[in-house]
# Entry
Amino acid sequence: MQNHPPPLANLPVLVLNLSALAAVPMPVTNDVLLATVLRRLEPWAGDEGDAGYTLIVLAAEEDALGKGKRRALPGVSWWIWNWRRIPRKYRKNLKRLYIVHPGTAAKTLLPITLPLLSPKSYPKLHIVPSLLALARAGIPLRGVDVPLSTLTEEARVLREHPQLAIPRAGMASFGLMNTLNQQGGVLGGLGWGVSAISSAIGTANSYLPFKLPAATLPPSPETEAKRSLDQSAAEPAKYWSGDVDAIIAENKGDLPRALHELRALILGMCSDTEGIFRKTATSHLLAPLQGLLDLPLRAQPKIDWAGVAITDPHLPPILLMRLLKGLSSALLPEDLYPLIRSTYTPDEIRTNLIPSLSPARVLVLTHLTHIGHHLLAHEDRTRMGATNLAIVIAPSLINGQDPRVDAALCLEPGKSLPPSLMPPDWAESGGTQTLVGLLQLWISEWPAVAEFTVSKNGWCDCAWADAGGQLSGSDPSTPIGMGRRVSGAKSGLYHELLGSQVMSSLAPATEAEYEAGVGAGLGYILNEDNKDLLG
Amino acid sequence: MSARKKVLLKVIILGDSGVGKTSLMNQYVNKRFSNQYKATIGADFLTRELVVDDRVVTMQLWDTAGQERFQSLGVAFYRGADCCVLVYDVNSSKSFEALDGWRDEFLVQASPHDPENFPFVVLGNKIDMEESKRMVSQKRAMTWCQAKGNIPYFETSAKEAINVEQAFQTIAKNALAQEAETELYADYPDPIRIDSDNAQNYGCSC
# Structure
């Protein structure tokens, strides 16, 4: 196998999502489907002699929700077969073809069929075992819609091959990173991860001969420690193990998109769930989601959150806490413990505690307690009152030297641990307040802390209340989130220009819907997060 | 003599959040099931006296918070444990898959003298829920228990008091056996074990 050349910068990257195609109703024949896809492709494929484009095929078709309701796609080999019938410019201008999560058909047939089709096409083809591997190969996933089917398949792959989840695995070429960057930004300004290319491509390489390398054991603590030592000078390998102040600064003082998305999801779709924030998630999507969110911000894809929440409503809150717990330093630093223990009123939170925290920490903590506050409106269904929420959230916000002190801080006020577990002189060393008591106060009295107005029914009177009410409201069959999901599922194909992402969309259900859908789909995506890029 | 000594058994209950650890303990000790929905903080313990093999023993049941975060307290929690109860919810396969982690965690933190033979008991809780919600089959659970050295397995319902007495009776019995062994070690506080790795392998090691 030859080495995979690095991805090409400044070419449009198109994503073809087979699960969206699989959702197209049966009366539409495969040939119509192909014609439609080609037509959508056309503006980006260019004419002969143009620069060309990159195509990513997300080949995972099935997800837990759509099981059995989907058409059987002809399989990747059918696509390849049709390759010959596709006008020359599409083939000629295709510079890279990445197939992510290939089914068995693709794995076994592709390496055989493709050279027969066109010897020149062969080096263009890259079969990538996982989405994370694709990201590490230098394809920024920003703007790519990740459907549930792809997440499900990613979870399966990561379960079977845990080494794929480890960022920068086997990075021997750290020096290469700088060299490549100096040579004019092979990755179009994406400084991160050049070193990871070699490892990820290595993975892809070994993947080509029909199977993945045998799963290796997770690295021992020693090698992990050694790696983190090696990386200490570089930026953290995982976005969410970074410093909270740096993360907020990178987002120009705002919260990262993921925290907004998780908030909307938790209040909109998970607020009917008993034991929210407390119970373990039941699905396996946690690992791929965390992996994708741990990519550098620029490389993070758009996730089908609604699909995730439908699969497992416990997952969004658990993921949120995972992210916050993983930060390089705990949100509430140890030197604030005495202050926490003597903060008894909302006023004291506002005037004493908040000024002692960095603005970034305040932003995140306010966000978290605000979510908690709006969840209280659903306590009859979640059974999670302010105290319960505080109990399950508190341990993730601190990480002091002495676990006994942290444990004591996570007690309800007035309770105590078995004597052998209490820190010495605890009672004498500070006030009677605990972090749980403080959080309970902050969550239930959120408007008072934030000096926000309270609505008639006692909840904070902000836009979230409306959104939350609306989303979880009267007609559970069509919450707004579902609408998102449907439109998201249809966007099987769209386009992204590296650097300035422009997207159009939609593998249409029918020809008519297709025409109507383009405008709507485009509008939707532009509204989401790219309007700033388009100006 | 040790037979007349008052026996105190320390039993640790581990498992993911919300699988019913506190409820099981409450059902066993107080014969009550509370519909109150309450997350456990840190750790707490309840005691109950019972008779095992004609001996009156006091079982000290340590309830723990299911959150990973408190594992850092493990050493202090687990020290001197005589039995470890692993609880999962039969309606959540994630909570079942987490058992491996909880078991390893316990063995690392408590570092019992003889980890191979340390008594564990696995409880699959919430069997009162409707069958269609069940995610972990009895067979799957039993296969796991067998693979981990024939761990006794019970399917329980703290809510309807199914199998709770039986399960804790077994827990006490196994803990008592462990306690006897611990005392053996306690008599020789610092035993020099030359071939510690092989000392316990009486049978064929296949």
Q: What stands out?
A: Residues 187-203 of chain B have pLDDT under 50 and may be disordered. The CA atoms of residues 50 and 151 of chain B lie 22 Å apart.
